[in-house]
Structure formats: structure tokens, C-alpha cells
Amino acid sequence: MTQSVQLAIYAGSFDPPTNGHLDLVERASRLFPRLIVAVGKNAARAPLFAPDERIEMMREVCKPYSNVIVDSFQGLLVDYGKRVGARVIVRGLRAGADFEYELQIAHANADLKPEIDTVFLPTRTNYGFISASLVREIASHGGDVSRYAPPVVCDALKRRFQP
Questions:
Q1: What is the distance in angstroms between the CA of the first residue and the CA of the last residue of the chain?
Q2: Residues 67, 33: contact at Cβ < 8 Å?
Q3: 123-131: long-range contacts, CB 8 A cutoff, minimum separation 24
Q4: CB 20 within 8 A of CB 130
Q5: Distance CA 148, CA 157 (A)
Q6: Residue 106 is part of which domain span?
Q7: pLDDT tens series, the chain, 163 aa
Q8: CB–CB of 75/42 below 8 Å?
Q9: Cα–Cα distance between 131 and 113 in angstroms, integer?
Q10: Under a CB-based contact definition with an 8 Å cutoff, are residues 71 and 46 in contact?
Q11: How many CB atoms lie within 10 A of CB 126?
Q12: Does the chain have fewer CB atoms within 10 Å around its N or its C terminus?
């Protein structure tokens, strides 16, 4: 498939999706005419939610964005990007430590597929401390995560951690 700057990918495990993820989806959907939110399937990880559950939650929270589709992938993101014809990978940055890690990945991706660029979007200040692991931890102890995750995710977390 021919690559186009018209198509970008925002990928992650989204286990679970957070308001920080959704903020990046919204902002990337305004920057690019088409955005794929790609849910990674990694057999080496033990996610809280199965891939199908994460995909369904992402589809639900991405409904307001007509130019966004949710898909899944396994393996290298740049291989998936090449297969779907993406020109850009969008990555979010929360803090300096994120930048070092993400830059290393971006360099590796550029070495593997130089035709695919990486664009970094810093998180909004109010989302800078939110991570999926933090949301999981709070929810696992019965805490209120409604400030950190969309309602559909909060409901799924409540069901998952019900005694």
C-alpha cells in the first residue's frame, strides 16, 4: 500500500484506555485526516483486559472522532504501519524519562522503516501523571478513577475488580 501523510497511527496497549490516551487521540485526529488507533497484542505480557476488550473500549471512546478507526496489531509497529500505508507514528510524552525511551524506539523504527516518521505530542499538564498502570492500581483497591478514565473504562474496571 502506498504511504500517505494522510494516515497516522497512535499505538499502545491501552490496558486500560485513560483520559490521557483519549486526549492524544483527539489531538492527533485534528492533526491528521485519518488516524488508526492500534491496540497492541503482546503474548509476552499479561494484560488486565483481553485484546478484544481493549479494542471494544477504544472503539467506544473513539466514536466521537469520525476520522479515527480502531484496529489491532501484533509484532513490530513499523511493519504494521507499512502494511496499512501509514506515514506517521504518533507517540505521547508525559515526562523526560518517556522522551529517552520513545526517542530510542523512534530511532530504531526510523532505521527499520525510514519512510515512517515519528511525531511526539506532549501530554497536557493535567494528564501528565496518568498512566494505565496507575489507573489499574487505584481501581484494584476500589478507588475512584473517574477523573482518569472514560466512563466505559471505569465501568469495566469496576466489573473486573468486584469482590
A1: 48
A2: yes
A3: 123/20, 123/23, 123/24, 123/92, 123/93, 123/94, 124/20, 124/23, 127/18, 127/19, 127/20, 127/23, 127/94, 128/20, 128/94, 128/95, 129/94, 130/18, 130/19, 130/20, 130/94, 131/18, 131/20, 131/94
A4: yes
A5: 12
A6: 4-160
A7: 455 558 999 999 999 999 999 999 999 999 999 999 999 998 777 899 999 999 999 999 999 999 999 999 999 999 999 999 999 999 999 887 789 899 999 999 999 999 999 999 999 988 888 999 999 999 999 999 999 999 999 999 999 998 7
A8: no
A9: 28
A10: no
A11: 11
A12: C
Overall domain count for the chain: 1
Beta strands in 13-151 (DSSP E): 34-40, 68-73, 86-93, 117-122
CATH label of the domain that carries residue 148? 3.40.50.620
pTM to 2 decimals?
Answer: 0.92
The letter for the amino acid at 28 is A
In angstroms, the CA 69 to CA 65 distance is 9
* Helix (H), strand (E) counts: the chain: 6, 5
Half-sphere exposure of 99 (CA within 13 A, CB side): 6
